[in-house]
């Protein structure tokens, strides 16, 4: 879905012409990179899979003639976060989309501890480090800045059968909601995006079989349009239905309801 000219003009007038996207080789990250490229933004893209990163870089340049800086790396490693920061220090980044992350599912007691620690490092530690960096950098720039944090519909209560993954996204959501107030007067806008199931490599890596999944193209443009306008975006009818309809439900009941939803996504693990 294309962005309207007035949206493109609003974003460029507010934030300039450079955006950075982490986790850009698939899913929502790739779709947003394509939409930013189509809108004429220069883009820094990051991801673990260098060949996919280079393919996307060539596609963006060939099709939209924008400047693209591909930086491969695994942001779950602190050194790779510092490397990314150093390599783009000279660029006037106006929009940072911190999309890199992954999920796990199943009973927490059976989890691979190293995988859970890796997820914590990527979903929370790397995101926090980059948010801190870009917030300070954007504060010092003449134009406003915007940071997009990828939360999830599971961020609003505990979720049995995805306990630790939901906890990492609760961290993201809570951080973003607070920073949206703290940073507004500093000239930095924060958007938390809390999607439900999206067709990407996420479900395979998380070992989930999800129903009613959105496609990345259903989500990417709506996220970009919401930058600078909202604090939290709930893409998709399933997400809106679950989050809005559970708002008045006691927290203990929300945990059970979301646990049943996740149980459906992970029932194949019991077969």
State the end-to-end distance.
39 Å
C-alpha Rg, in Å? 18 Å
The coarse overall form would be globular
The named CATH superfamily: NAD(P)-binding Rossmann-like Domain
Write structural notes for this entry.
By secondary structure, the protein is of the alpha/beta class. The chain has a single domain (5-270), classed as NAD(P)-binding Rossmann-like Domain (Rossmann fold, 3-Layer(aba) Sandwich). It has helices at residues 5-15, 27-38, 50-64, 78-87, 113-139, 163-182, 202-206, 216-226, 237-245, 251-266; strands at residues 18-22, 42-47, 68-72, 95-98, 145-150, 188-193, 232-233. Helix 2 (27-38) packs across helix 8 (216-226). The protein is globular. 43% of the residues are buried.
Secondary structure elements and pairings:
Blueprint: H1 5-15, E1 18-22, H2 27-38, E2 42-47, H3 50-64, E3 68-72, H4 78-87, E4 95-98, H5 113-139, E5 145-150, H6 163-182, E6 188-193, H7 202-206, H8 216-226, E7 232-233, H9 237-245, H10 251-266
Parallel strand pairs: 1-2, 1-4, 2-3, 4-5, 5-6, 6-7
